[in-house]
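It would be a great kindness if you could assist me with a short task in structural biology. Thank you for your consideration; the sequence and its tokens are set out here.
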Amino acid sequence: MAVAGAIRTSRPAAVSAAVGLWQSTWRAGERIQWQQQVRRIAAIDRHTMDRQRKAGERRMARNQRGGAESDHNPLRTQILLPMTWVRPPLSRFPRSWGYLKAYITTKARDLATRIGIEFSSKPTFFKKRVYKAHTRKLVPLAKALHINMYEAVAKGDKATLRTVCGTAMADSFVRLIESRLPGRKYGWELVRYNWKVWGYPRVVDHKLIPSAGDPMNPYKPGDMIRQVVVGIPSRQRRVEYEFTRESKEWREVPGSEKEVDVVENVVLNQALDRRTFAPLGEWKIISLVGEMTPEKFREERELLKLIEDRQAGEMEKRMGLK
């Protein structure tokens, strides 16, 4: 009876041990199958990622070759950059701490950006930088372009205006020339530069920033935009002539001759290649700007905020966050 009882009590233990061994073997098999499946999926993912990476590299190289062969589009770079800051003279400087702080911050940011880009143009740390500003040549260049622009406007020389001015500014001058009355012509003369204005002519604003890339070609980087504002004080003579049928000659319109003293802030623009820093065109006048007033500063700040919010929204939408 004792032996039979022992045998009866040992059967459940043997069965439970067999069940436990079977369960552990099953779990080990599942674990091995899961690990094999994970390794297989990882291998497929690596293969897919390598294939996508190689395809992207081929596409980038093809787009870069195509971008190098394509012509530069000036419409994307001949733009007046935001916060183009021409401060008023100290006698009329706004007595506002916010205005002064924004002025110092903007100028410091422009200087830091230029220094950073100049340093990044060095092939290696111990080699000389590729990009050089040549700031001393900018004032004589601006004076020459300023004279050529007004002489071309007076003569109605559209070809010279296309050479000296940017596309938008040249178009505005061409429309002005075409709207003139028949039988009239105009004269312009630079009498002198007003050297009494302290420190002028001089560079009053200098920016160097990378532009946005081509939206149709995301693999092609945008060009560098260099913008320089030169303040030129001068005395100018302006006169108007009319053609008389009686004498068949041009005569000065009475009371049309005027001499005016003006201070003009000439905005020069040039695009640079982002990789080689080589100029993609000649310097051109794209605008004449006034002084930065507190009201204008607030308007530009609000405009910049709207642009940044819009760009952030487009980026979130592109990433699927919205």
